Every structure is written in structure tokens, then in C-alpha cells.
């Protein structure tokens, strides 16, 4: 659970940084999109933290260094895709060593994470097909 909590917090921080980079490069729609993604990751982290507290589990996590260097929409999306895949790996690792009660709790994250990875695969494909027009399609 600690690995998963770490991945969610690191994704929150990573998305915040991606939002700042997007804003600095005048990709305002993408900056707003990443800011929303950051809030989603923080919500996921809080749910995990609440679960750990309620189950009297010790909460420790490791923050990674999120030092991104990119300047194109594609690079930003690829980094976000990597963040989501890392969270998925954490869910799989946590699930494989968890008690049945923990697995039941984690079930809610499994489908969400599959959808998040697929979302970034679709966004990368749309960016490749639409180029500059892509940003206007973000909601």
C-alpha cells in the first residue's frame, strides 16, 4: 500500500510540474488539463491514506525527484502516460501481496487505472493525428 500511496503522491507532484511546464510553453488548455489530473491523483492518495489510517497501517512513502524537461505537447503527454503506467505497476504490486480485504479496497483503483493508461494512449494518438488542433479538443 505504501508503494501505491507513493506513486499517487508522486503522480500528483508530477502532474503539477507538467501543468507548470505546459503553462510556461503557452499550452494553456494542456496546463488546465494537467492541473485537473493532479487533483485527481491527490484524491486517490487521500483515499489510500484514509484507508491506511482506518486499518491502522503505517504510512510511509518515498517521493521521487520529478525533474521533467520537455517543451512539446507530445513530450508532455508521453511523460503523463509514463506516470500513469507507473501507478498501474504499483497497483499490481500492491494487489499481489495484499490481504483479501486490501484487494477488495484496491479493486476500485484497478479499473480506474486501466482507463487512465488507455486515456493517455488515446490522447497521444489524437495529438499525432491532429497536431496543433489537438489542444482545442481537450476538455
UniProtKB/TrEMBL annotation:
Residues 1-131 form the Ferritin-like diiron domain. It holds the Pfam family Ferritin. InterPro entries: Ferritin-like, Ferritin-like_diiron, Ferritin-like_SF, Ferritin_DPS_dom. SUPFAM superfamilies: Ferritin-like. One of its GO terms (molecular function) is ferric iron binding. PROSITE patterns: FERRITIN_LIKE. This is Ferritin. It comes from Hexamita inflata.
Amino acid at each position: 500500500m505504501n508503494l501505491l500511496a507513493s506513486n499517487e503522491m508522486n503522480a500528483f507532484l508530477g502532474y503539477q510540474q507538467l501543468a507548470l511546464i505546459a503553462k510556461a510553453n503557452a499550452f494553456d488548455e494542456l496546463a488546465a488539463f494537467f492541473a485537473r489530473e493532479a487533483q485527481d491523483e491527490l484524491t486517490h492518495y487521500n483515499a489510500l491514506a484514509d484507508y491506511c489510517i482506518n486499518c491502522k497501517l503505517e504510512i510511509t512513502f518515498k517521493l521521487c525527484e520529478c525533474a521533467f524537461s520537455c517543451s512539446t505537447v507530445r513530450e508532455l503527454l508521453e511523460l503523463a502516460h509514463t506516470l500513469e503506467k507507473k501507478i498501474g505497476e504499483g497497483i499490481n504490486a500492491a494487489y499481489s501481496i495484499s490481504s483479501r480485504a486490501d484487494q477488495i479496497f484496491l479493486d476500485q483503483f484497478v479499473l480506474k487505472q486501466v482507463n487512465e493508461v488507455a486515456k493517455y494512449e488515446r490522447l497521444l494518438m489524437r495529438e499525432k493525428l491532429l497536431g496543433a488542433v489537438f489542444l482545442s479538443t481537450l476538455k
